[in-house]
Design goal:
Elements: H1 13-35, H2 39-77, E1 85-89, H3 95-102, E2 108-113, H4 125-134, E3 141-145, E4 158-164, H5 173-185, E5 187-197, H6 201-211, E6 214-220, E7 235-240
Parallel strand pairs: 1-2, 1-4, 2-3, 4-5
Antiparallel strand pairs: 5-7, 6-7
Helix pairs in contact: 1-2, 2-3, 5-6
Length: 247
């Protein structure tokens, strides 16, 4: 019998392809310059080629290993009981969703996505279902096709809401704010929110503070989630929905 193996694809595959192509072009240029014996210029081309190769390697590490290591830590820090209801906004092929489900033997993990392959290679609901089965958590995972700016859930449905590298794909500030408001709306009192994203986390934090969230914080996630370099780093936004006595 064939063993099922989960496969999580590549984030923003066009970007990874572009980095590889640029590194390849510079490598060819280095060979051409060397063949032409422009010794003074070959070191410049070598440095540029090496820099592009490092960017490619960092991006590949982030999408294939780094994000899993970081999210394992973030989920462990939530210290879940195991019976919670967790929501993943922009769940894709399920990297974070299923890591959460593994920590919920008596709970459920719910994923919402529009299943766009431009955001993640091979991003389809069938792939997420396959991965859930491969990880042995299909019985505690539910998937929905939906827009994170208009969630099909009631107020206070979830104990935990997470999102990884998804909200920034919404092009407008108003749309991103709507997604953050929806994430906060479906949190029960005392429920916790963790968003890992690029560049926009302080924007999300301002929305949550206006909504009355408590323990709002933003922190860098380190080199393991550098998407080519520190100029494309990932930060974690954490917040808690207040108890009635905190409002």
């Amino acid at each position: 019998m064939a063993v099922k193996r989960a496969s999580y694809g590549v984030d923003a595959p066009f970007v990874l392809f572009m980095l590889a192509a640029i590194a390849g072009v510079y490598a060819v240029a280095t060979v051409v310059v060397g063949y032409a014996q422009h010794v003074g210029w070959i070191w410049v081309w070598l440095v540029i080629t090496a820099a592009m190769a490092v960017q490619f390697a960092l991006y590949l590490h982030a999408t294939r290993r780094g994000k899993f290591q970081v999210w394992n830590r973030l989920l462990d820090e939530l210290d879940l009981r195991g019976d919670e209801l967790l929501l993943d906004l922009g769940c894709g092929r399920g990297a974070v969703l299923l890591a959460g489900a593994r920590r919920l033997p008596d709970g459920h993990a719910v994923g919402v996505d529009l299943w766009r392959s431009v955001d993640q290679s091979g991003n389809r609901v069938a792939t997420a279902e396959w991965n859930a089965a491969a990880e042995g958590v299909a019985d505690r995972v539910r998937l929905h096709t939906g827009d994170m700016t208009e969630l099909p859930f009631a107020d206070g449905d979830f104990d935990v809401v997470v999102s990884s590298l998804a909200i920034h794909n919404i092009k407008t500030a108003a749309g991103r704010a709507a997604a953050v408001r929806e994430a906060f709306r479906v949190l029960r009192p005392g429920g916790r929110l963790v968003i890992a994203d690029i560049a926009k986390t302080r924007e999300y934090a301002a929305v949550l503070i206006d909504l009355g969230a408590v323990r709002v914080g933003v922190a860098p996630l380190g080199w393991r989630m550098w998407w080519g370099g520190p100029w494309m780093s990932t930060r974690a936004l954490t917040a808690t929905a207040p108890q009635p006595s905190q409002r």
